[in-house]
Write a structure and sequence with these properties.
Blueprint: H1 2-13, H2 15-63, H3 68-78, H4 81-95, H5 100-111, H6 114-129, H7 133-191
């Protein structure tokens, strides 16, 4: 819409001013899209970080004796902020007659979190075969936390490698200029006749 307006303005205002307006509009659109992508990426990372806590809460509720329906409603009330809206929507879906596993699977689909899809699969297995899902959920949450810990350690290792380049090209020349050059100059002065 803004692009069409900029082209129309270029016809009315003149070529140079219109091109400037067109470039400014294009730049604004690019910046807006980049900001939206960054915000979506940040939200996705926050949701992924909150998933183990949600799975732990669900497992704790199930271990406490609540049924899956009540457990999901309680988790929706007390979940981390990144997933609170989606889990509240799942609680509303429970009121419309969906099973807890289906509601949780829908949350996993909307957020693209495989962790929640796997949790939904554990709840489906519990509904189908009567297996207790709490232990499976606790193991899944622990696996997610250990994967996040390994990812953080790998990122820390990559940071050390990335820091080596600036250190070599900033620290080494300064060291040569401040230590090696004066030492060599002093040695040459002493050795020169």
């Amino acid at each position: 819409m803004g692009l069409v307006a900029a082209i129309g303005a270029s016809v009315l205002v003149g070529r140079d001013a219109g091109l400037l307006l067109l470039a400014a509009t294009g730049g604004a659109l690019v910046i807006r899209r980049a900001a939206a992508r960054r915000a979506a990426s940040r939200l996705r990372a926050e949701q992924a970080a909150a998933a183990p806590a949600v799975i732990d809460l669900l497992g704790a509720c199930l271990l406490a004796g609540l049924n899956p329906y009540r457990s999901l409603v309680r988790v929706a009330e007390r979940s981390p902020a990144a997933l609170r809206v989606e889990l509240a929507r799942a609680a509303v879906e429970l009121d419309t007659g969906r099973t807890p596993a289906a509601a949780l699977r829908a949350v996993g689909e909307r957020t693209s979190l495989d962790e929640l899809r796997a949790t939904a699969a554990a709840l489906e297995a519990a509904e189908r075969w009567g297996a207790p899902p709490a232990e499976a959920l606790a193991a899944r949450a622990e696996a997610l936390r250990s994967r996040a810990r390994l990812r953080a350690e790998a990122e820390a290792g990559r940071a050390a490698v990335r820091l080596a380049f600036p250190l070599v090209f900033c620290f080494l020349p300064a060291f040569v200029l401040l230590v090696v050059v004066p030492t060599m100059a002093g040695a040459l002065r002493v050795l020169a006749p």
